[in-house]
Design brief:
27% strand; 38% helix; binds ligand 76R; 10 helices; alpha+beta
Length: 276
């Protein structure tokens, strides 16, 4: 352990903050609104969503949620939690909000883990004669990480993937009495993440995966968003990962939300009971 050439805590890069915001529609309350007013409220909601989606720094999208876990899921990417809070508050000003009942929400930040890249950066610095703790090491390491950040910038600060379906769920790396992810060595965790990435990569063409880190932000450790045009791919991918040690031994899952992407201009149809 004394000779470890990499730090215990893996470095991560952060991008947009993410809010998943799920509501049920109070349908009886909605239907009680007078004719004419319903159309206005729906149009106002659609305009609000379109303006949020056009924001210069971030993105917003809406999904129709399957099952009784909710009816509508808004997803927002923004630069800061303050910006997300502003979006939340502006939704609360809409008349549409009067018929929305909160059912779930989740805060995270786009995260790219650098298990491989951190190790590479360290060994590069060590090869050049620097060692952790030596003067100059921290600066050189920061420069190296800044380079990584530039290279992955388009993945940290991207738009919400456009595929028809979203699968969102929070998860932990489980800490039972027998196994503890956080007590493993860096090498063990890196090897497992490599195996995980290998499985995931088989689905590269069918799924876009966005990992939101949420340690210190919300009740679970990560929020996983998968986006695909064919929802059966979620089942196949998540099932295959259940057999991979990183998930089989260390993962614990929260509720799964499956949603169908709605364009802002489809919101009035949705509220009138029509979809797609
Ligand atoms: O970022 C990368 O693409 C590099 C490889 C990679 C990392 C570091 C990767 C690839 N993931 C990484 C990290 Mn993932 N991922 C999940 C889940 O349901 C389950 O069992 C787990 C939920 C899925 C389905 C999934 C899919 N991944 C992570 C992390 C952070 C871990 C840490 O830091 O300790 C979590 C929590 C997590 C969870 N992963 C991929 C995928 C897919 C499809 C890929 C390949 C992406 C591609 O090649 O396009």
């Amino acid at each position: 352990m004394a000779e470890m050439s990499v730090p215990e805590v893996p470095q991560t890069l952060e991008g947009w903050y993410i809010l998943h915001d799920v509501y049920s529609v109070d349908w009886p309350a909605w239907r009680r609104r007078p004719d004419g007013e319903r159309e206005q409220i729906a149009a106002e909601g659609a305009a609000w969503l379109a303006s949020q989606a056009e924001c210069p720094e971030g993105d917003s999208a809406l999904y129709s949620v399957l099952t009784q876990k909710g009816d509508l899921m808004f997803v927002h990417y923004r630069k800061t939690p303050a910006e997300l809070n502003r979006v939340e508050l502006s939704l609360r000003q809409l008349r549409l909000f009067d018929v929305l009942r909160p059912t779930y929400s989740y805060l995270s930040v786009v995260e790219i883990g650098l298990y491989e890249l951190t190790a590479l950066a360290y060994s590069k610095l060590v090869k050049s004669g620097l060692k952790p703790g030596m003067p100059g090491f921290d600066d050189a390491f920061a420069t190296e990480m800044e380079g990584q950040r530039t290279r992955v910038k388009n993945r940290l600060f991207r738009d919400i993937p456009e595929q028809a379906y979203i699968c969102f769920y929070p998860m932990n790396k489980r800490r039972g009495e027998k196994v503890n992810w956080y007590a493993l060595t860096m090498e063990e965790r890196r090897d497992m993440m490599r195996g995980h990435g290998r499985i995931g990569h088989k689905y590269h063409d069918q799924v876009t995966q966005i990992i939101g880190g949420s340690v210190g932000l919300d009740d679970w450790e990560w929020g996983v968003s998968l986006h695909a045009d064919d929802a059966v791919v979620f089942k196949k991918l998540v099932y295959e990962m259940r057999f991979d040690p990183a998930s089989a031994l260390y993962a614990e899952f929260g509720p799964f939300y499956i949603g169908l992407r709605l364009k802002p201009e489809s919101l009035p149809d949705f509220l009138a009971g029509k979809i797609g």
